[in-house]
Amino acid sequence: MKPTPTSGKRVVSLAEMAARVPDGASVALGGSFLHRGPFAFVRELIRQGRRGLEIVKQSPGYDIDILCRAGCVARARAGIVAMEGNFGLAPWYRRAVETQQIELEEHACMTLTAGLRAAAYGVPFQPVGGVHGSDLAALNRWASVADPYGSGQDVWVIPAIRPDVAVIHVNEADEHGDARVRGTSHWDRILTRAARQVFVVAEKLVPAASFEDCPELTLVPGFMVQAVCVAPRGAWPGSCWPHYEIDYPAVESYLDAGRHLDAHLGRAPEAAHRVRAEAAAPARAEVTEPVRA
């Protein structure tokens, strides 16, 4: 299912951005493992009760795990899935796969990237190396083609993968949707080129002139972006270099099966921001109310 069409306004709230993703949509998530994932956006999907999602990501972890824990996922296209070396495998995702609560199209990171590249290039499939000897081709019914240049070798080809929307977390964005990442971009570039729509969650908004001054640092140009929101510490409990590191105690607390998911959601930075905004709303209304004679 396709995301809700957007208006001309690109800067929206986190809640409005999540509301544009309908049940059953295919959602590609940026970042890698516990690093610079759009986790505030993921948690907002949970708060809004989204269901039947397909999640696309080469190396998910916390994001797909918490979505499975909340019952939001129907299908996954993923490579390696883990909470990194400190915590091992993603437990709720693993349970969802083992009990067949979700359908899994298992990939290597390179095969998923090949499918996304095919979509980005506008071709039906993309050749990929390294699949020979693996069961992935048979499991996914991938086809192979003979080398048309006469080497006598067959090459596995991965069908195009076009998510409905790609959502990435970035260091900086401007009001036009231009987005910038400090450090490695992980898989974000190819995700944003393959998806039908692109949503950007940013640590902060900066003037458009800063992108004009350093255009070579722009990861995603604004003309590709349909929505932008600001969510400081939105990659929590993961990292967003150089702003903050992984909050390991928070990850450990999340993995404690004895703790309710609502408690974890309530600790998130965007939840505290929402509470402050709601508390301040009456005061703002009182101040801005026009004076009547």
Task: Give a written overview of the molecule.
The protein has helices at 14-19, 39-47, 62-69, 91-98, 109-121, 136-140, 188-194, 208-213, 248-254, 261-267, 269-288, and strands at 26-29, 53-57, 73-78, 103-106, 125-128, 143-146, 154-159, 165-173, 179-180, 197-205, 218-220, 227-230. It is an alpha/beta fold and 293 residues long. The chain has a single domain (14-124, 160-288), classed as Glutaconate Coenzyme A-transferase (3-Layer(aba) Sandwich). The strands form two sheets. Strands 1, 2, 3, 4, 8, 9, 10, 11 and 12 form a nine-stranded mixed sheet that branches. Strand 8 (165-173) and strand 9 (179-180) form a beta hairpin.
What is the topology?
Elements: H1 14-19, E1 26-29, H2 39-47, E2 53-57, H3 62-69, E3 73-78, H4 91-98, E4 103-106, H5 109-121, E5 125-128, H6 136-140, E6 143-146, E7 154-159, E8 165-173, E9 179-180, H7 188-194, E10 197-205, H8 208-213, E11 218-220, E12 227-230, H9 248-254, H10 261-267, H11 269-288
Parallel strand pairs: 1-2, 1-8, 2-3, 3-4, 8-10, 10-12
Antiparallel strand pairs: 5-7, 6-7, 8-9, 9-11
Helix pairs in contact: 2-3, 3-4, 5-7
